[in-house]
Amino acid sequence: MNTAPSPDSAPASAPALVATGLVKSYGPSTALAGVDVRVAAGESVAIMGASGSGKTTLLHCLAGIVRPDSGAVVLTTGSGRFDVTGMDETGRSRLRREEFGFVFQQGLLLPELTAVENVALPLMLTGSDRRSAESTAAGWLADLGLAGLESRRIGELSGGQAQRVAIARAQTTGASVVFADEPTGALDSVTSAEVMDALIRSTTGRGRSLVVVTHDESVAARCARTVRLADGRIVDGVSAR
Ligand SMILES: Nc1ncnc2c1ncn2[C@@H]1O[C@H](COP(=O)(O)OP(=O)(O)OP(=O)(O)O)[C@@H](O)[C@H]1O
Question: How many Å apart are CA 239 and CA 86, to the nearest integer?
Fold first, then answer.
């Protein structure tokens, strides 16, 4: 990342995301009832569980999108140690831009932009000029097997191609951790396998961590470890370390 947003004093070390005691309620509904989870550098972790078990809430707490009612999330990267839960919204939003990448089911790509413009956007938001951002973006598109499709708008791509554009976009800023929520939910099984391979290769293959929320056992099987939630608690796979 360019500049460390308020790191505390710990020395730089390999990226790792450590959550302890996460509790989050929405009115009377308890989404997380005390979750501890650790994601090591270069590790891929699937989060599984029935609908309503708290998967997306956990992912959002880990990524600093949602602040838990209690508990802590700490990210350690080469840039420093970040108290994700202790930061204000401005700090968390900067952390999300600079240290985290996101891939969602629908990709959240901007349909009016081309593939290369979508991938270049996060770089331009962190200060790169258009020419160098698009050059880096084109490199990521090629890495994900999309060379030649740079100028296509998102609607002119297949679902699998669009998800690979979303994966490229999540990588451009050098994210330490990539979060994916049902990244293959809209794809057939063959395309899903290809997209998961691309996602894993471009993240853990480069030492980044990957956290994937999925209902699909075949997607989870491609991750190094699966954490299972039931009623806001981890029931299996608490930590490999
Ligand atoms: N913004 C919100 N407002 C109110 N309740 C919420 C909100 N987000 C989640 N919840 C509730 O918290 C619980 C956990 O939701 P969450 O979306 O984390 O589960 P999930 O396991 O991801 O479910 P699904 O697989 O259906 O997406 C559910 O009871 C849900 O209704």
Answer: 23
